[in-house]
Amino acid sequence: VTREWSDWRDGWIWWIQSVYVDPPRRRRGVYAALHRHVLEQARLAGDVVGLRLYVDRANRAAQRTYERLGMAPSHYVLYEQGGAPRP
Ligand SMILES: CC(C)(COP(=O)(O)OP(=O)(O)OC[C@H]1O[C@@H](n2cnc3c(N)ncnc32)[C@H](O)[C@@H]1OP(=O)(O)O)[C@@H](O)C(=O)NCCC(=O)NCCS
Asked: What's the gap in Å between 48 CA and the centre of ligand 1?
């Protein structure tokens, strides 16, 4: 989990990063347990306004997993610029 301050929402957003479950152990609730743990820790922290994560547009399996756990696609579109761009 990495943290990002949201000035708009006046609180911390926790980003779940680099999720990977060993293939033979998938579909047994491993990620669900991890997700619920992070959610519980965020609630206990008291100053967390939401959880976010990145997922590849083509990764439908992961998207379905997150949706089963109550997440929904954000209305934001992500923009980026590679490397150390020259002005
Ligand atoms: C995506 C991933 C993390 C899911 O982990 P997991 O431990 O298998 O997921 P869980 O068993 O906890 O499943 C949680 C829920 O998502 C659903 N789900 C999991 N994998 C799914 C799939 N391939 N298709 C549809 N639904 C799926 C489960 O059915 C479960 O819902 P349910 O309890 O109502 O049945 C795992 O498949 C993975 O590591 N994939 C490769 C790496 C990857 O894509 N990471 C995501 C990067 S953003």
From this structure: 24
Using a 6 Å cutoff on CB, does residue 45 contact ligand 1?
A: no
For the entire predicted model, the pTM comes to 0.94
How close is the Cα of 4 to the center of ligand 1, in Å?
25
Strand partners, 50: 13
Q: What percent of the chain has pLDDT over 90?
A: 91
Q: Please, which residues have CB within 8 angstroms of residue 49's CB and are 6 or more apart in sequence?
A: 6, 9, 10, 11, 12, 13
36 vs 40: CA distance, rounded Å:
6
